[in-house]
Design goal:
alpha+beta, Arc Repressor Mutant, subunit A, two-stranded antiparallel ribbon, 8 helices
């Protein structure tokens, strides 16, 4: 964690804004916090990001991104993401400003860090494609998530 940010990723990883990028890959909308968390952990597990660089905490429903709420609140304050609650379900929507930001980020990273960006973009696309039409409780049943649920509650996974 860096001093200038509440971001849970190291500075070099934080600059990639994986939460915003994930939302963008879901066509700008993710219905459900559980779906968002599980998709993020599947993204992390499919990349070269080390578990100790971006730890998830084992919670009741499996691995949870510990910096998620504060970071999404910051994105909401910056008008990059719109958060709403529909009953018990949290809905996350990318704003037009957020969409422009992610497009600019992708374009810039394709120039600066081509190989790394291609790998991560591919992994984000794969996770979004696999999870787009599923609900969080279905994703929670995936083998990789179930394996992480074997860890004691409160531990980093």
């Amino acid at each position: 964690m860096t001093d200038e940010s509440d971001e849970i990723l190291p500075g070099s990883e934080a600059a990639l804004h994986p939460r915003l990028w994930m939302l963008n890959e879901f066509d700008g909308e993710i219905d459900g916090e559980l779906k968002f968390h599980k998709s993020l952990v599947q993204f992390r597990n499919g990349t070269d990001i080390e578990k100790d660089e971006w730890p998830f905490i084992r919670a009741y429903r499996g691995p949870m991104d510990q910096g998620f709420s504060s970071i999404l609140e910051s994105y909401d304050d910056l008008e990059l993401v719109y958060r709403e609650k529909d009953g018990v379900i949290h809905i996350y929507r990318e704003t037009e400003k957020g969409n422009r930001f992610v497009r600019g980020l992708k374009n810039g990273l394709r120039i600066l860090k081509k190989d790394q960006t291609e790998e991560r973009e591919t992994q984000l696309e794969l996770v979004a494609k696999a999870n787009k039409d599923r609900i969080g409780s279905e994703i929670e049943q995936d083998e990789d998530i179930q394996k992480m649920k074997e860890a004691p509650i409160g531990t980093e996974v």
